[in-house]
Amino acid sequence: MTRGVARKKLVVVGDGGCGKTSLLVVYQKKAFPQRYVPTVFENYIANVPLDTGKIVELALWDTAGQEDYDRLRPLSYPETDVVLICFAINLRTSFTNVQDRWLPEVTHFCENVPKLLVGTKLDFRQNQEEIQRLGLVGQRLITEEEGEQLAREIGAKYYECSAMQKINVDEVIEAATKAAVAGNMRRLHKRLCTIL
Question: Is the pLDDT reported for residue 106 higher than 80?
């Protein structure tokens, strides 16, 4: 391993179609994917510079959110350093599934691993057509306050982003990288304290 380079693993979970892949593709390639192709499993490598001058080689693990892959997805979790739990701000079910589905799975397979809650598709906050469409079916966008409240409840930090408009994408990945590095130091310290 090159001096000054740390290797970390980030796993992204959330409902199918909530924007997980777009977030990772836009971070990695700086271009929004032009068509939706459901993910089975995808991996990317990104070199993330930290403000300390350190470079982190971050393995980005994109997982399938569809229930058909519930038995395969756990293969992504070993040696995870940070988890992004994503939901789309215009899909109430994806928000509800954070607590009902994703948090229990992440807690089971990645106990004591730092997690970030990420509201994707932030661009819909300015999209009147989407706001009206949701209103016609008795729904509304998830608010930033709702996201922050849920993050507090599950012990995560909260971020919002738009891959389509490239808003806060870098910030989400950088925050996840810092959480992975800090979480690793806490786990190492805890192990050392336990041994002593």
Answer: yes
